[in-house]
């Protein structure tokens, strides 16, 4: 078959010399806009470290550095049966997890429920009633016994929340397209428990967690070298263990200085002031037109929710400002729909195995009703590579900043999220950026390895519930609000 060759390497710049002169200029402009070199990466990490430290201070900063009241890593000997509730952006998942006799092992039963679109902008009562419905369905399906003992619940609530206690959390702000009145600024645990109590469901929230903290704990359960948990998906975030003595904003609590405390960074908000991130005009448009301008600056450059939109805006820039340069005479109206393209669109372009990019051609015809020429396909491919590479390299800065702040020379990083698991070359590009930032010798193996995480929002939530009950039993009541209720679960 003519034109079908071997799989592409990560970059196909070698084919650029065959392009017509009028497309080389825009490609060079894109390369200049989206390339983040080693010195810029280091500059970003230096600022990142300062922002992490500021978030731990009394005055705080853009990065909230939320104290989670998860006070230890699991040792692999945790036991018991726990419920886990995972409220993500698209689905609600309920799991029952039994931590078994074998060290680091578990059994899991789970069900997924689609979050109705109207819930995202509905009422608080509708949200909690729906969650209670799902828990009730799960219990009825998996427990026939009438006199069911109280079940401890690990609730993965993956939205920025302030926690003075592990079984409590005040929503700072909705993300992921949610905008439900009457929840921001409120503790999310009591309204859920109230509805569960009304329904006679024997469920008590033992721990409210973020998926990133869950990722850290679940990954460390099976791998003691795990020191950081990350999410690279619809949003971006990380969690790690800090010493209580290095968190000035909780100094008044007089915790033992060497006590480990898991910090949910919420660092999608890094550099909201636009001090150091290499913003393009497309990033500026995304921020300007977003529901919350001026927020989540780092996330808007790296997360899966935005990669397709950056790509769409870049193509529209050529169409609108360089008349007749690309897709000449074709109907580009579909391309004008905001957020029509997601990260999977770029991933499919980068995964196209054919030298003549026939799969990319099919993708454009099918999705956008546009039939690009061969030179246009080369430009499209290069643009997708540049946006995907920038996201991976910037994403590595958060990991490098935590390692730098904590003087971590080597460790494993547990990573979850659709961009990490599904976007081609993301892992390799991030690893290369870490090599450049942390100055490893060319002959050295990767000292900080980012690898696929365990199920943080399910197993991690159950483990954190188990760890909480374990320390309550041992008399460590730091960060526990309702001790009497907690003791009924022992």
TrEMBL record:
PROSITE patterns, per database record: HEXOKINASE_1, HEXOKINASE_2
Biological process (GO), any one: mannose metabolic process
Single Gene Ontology MF annotation: ATP binding
Transferase in keyword set: yes
Domain Hexokinase N-terminal positions: 27-221
EC number assigned by the record: 2.7.1.-
SUPFAM superfamilies in the cross-refs: Actin-like ATPase domain (SSF53067)
Region (Disordered): 1-20
GO cellular component: cytosol; mitochondrion
Pathway stated in the Swiss-Prot or TrEMBL entry: Carbohydrate degradation; glycolysis; D-glyceraldehyde 3-phosphate and glycerone phosphate from D-glucose: step 1/4; Carbohydrate metabolism; hexose metabolism
Pfam families to which the protein is assigned, alphabetical: Hexokinase_1, Hexokinase_2
Keywords: Allosteric enzyme, ATP-binding, Glycolysis, Kinase, Nucleotide-binding, Transferase
Domain Hexokinase C-terminal: 227-467
Catalysed transformations (reactions): D-fructose + ATP = D-fructose 6-phosphate + ADP + H(+); a D-hexose + ATP = a D-hexose 6-phosphate + ADP + H(+)
Membrane spanning residue stretches: none
Family of the protein in this entry: Belongs to the hexokinase family.
Name used for this protein in its record: Phosphotransferase
Organism, scientific name: Penicillium chrysogenum
Organism placement in taxonomy: Eukaryota, Fungi, Dikarya, Ascomycota, Pezizomycotina
